[in-house]
Amino acid sequence: MQDILNHIKELASKHAEEVITIRRHIHQFPELSFEEINTSAYVCSILDKYHITYTKGIVKTGIVAIIEGRNPTKKTTLLRADLDALPIEEKTEVSYKSQHNGVMHACGHDAHTASVLGTAIILQHLKNEFEGTVKIMFQPGEEVLPGGASLMIKEGVLQNPNVNVAFGQHVFPSMEVGKVGFRKGMYMASTDELHITIHGKGGHAAMAGEYKNPLIVVALIVTEIEKQFPFRIDEDGVARNTENNIPTVIAFGKVEAKGATNVIPESAYLAGTFRTMDEKWRVAVKEKITQIIETLCKTYQVTATINIENGYPFLMNDEVVTEHAKQSAILYLGKENVEDLPLRMTAEDFSYITQEVPSCFYRLGTANKAQGITSGVHTATFNIDEKALEIASGLMAWLVVSNRN
User: Fold this and answer.
1) End-to-end Cα spacing for the chain
2) Does domain 195-309 have CATH number 3.30.300.30?
């Protein structure tokens, strides 16, 4: 296997500049979720260049490419890349800065797509040197519900041929370039959105007996939920419910009420997020939140519109697949460059895939503190050290070739 590992590294190096060019093109022309028409067409042009077979137009802009190695029916490995950008105005000064006002690849999906294209190029060169079939999924809409992965699964991306194992990666701006990270088992949280509107009775603020202030109930909802679901922060920075130790976040980030200093509004809107890592607890918490709101509304003689929107499920990395991937990464990068990851309360729609097939979702170091490349994802100054792209392309190809599951 050492010979093919070295061959992969040679190919990753050979195509590194091309992968950087691909990434910069995608970065310069970002498109929002489920609007990735030109991005999709550009991906297809790269696949065409290397004579890689694909099907396009899945969930409008999604693509599935197929590379068959020797004995193609032996197993099928799925690789995932996401295409969409975020509604953020870029504030970097790079030469390939976004040309679309208010839209930016601030979560690294440009890097994901470019590096997976690099992996596809490597595997196309090596298709006579590995067994099985590689299915490469370029998905739309990772950033918004219901998530492009879930929609592509409904369209049959995991069938024909049936997927046996799946790999996904994500940039990690708090990890230095050259390193990668893995975590077996539970890794990322489910995510549900909380949308609550309290309907009261408006009026002049001085006439306290003539109105029912919805803001009072909104304030009490926030404080009562905090009281009912006490939490502590563990050594990894993860919030855990103090009564059952289950990772749990209930946080409200938006309150909207169109009143004034002397105007009580008719209604007030409250929005937040609920994240956890236990499905039974997930159901129980949502029921309890609804009960808290209804009780407060009854007490204060107001009504509520409650919309709890179910989001992505938790992400579970298969123990065997992830351990093998970690050991493969050690062979590829050296033990000093492979880290164990803590739990994260962020969410990822790759989780839908982990619910269906044995999977591994890992992190790619993209920071360079010496060069000031440290901004977090979803910020206007996010960027990556592009040396990570060569590592990403080669490592994912090596995971495919070395995986024996």
Assistant:
1) 16
2) no
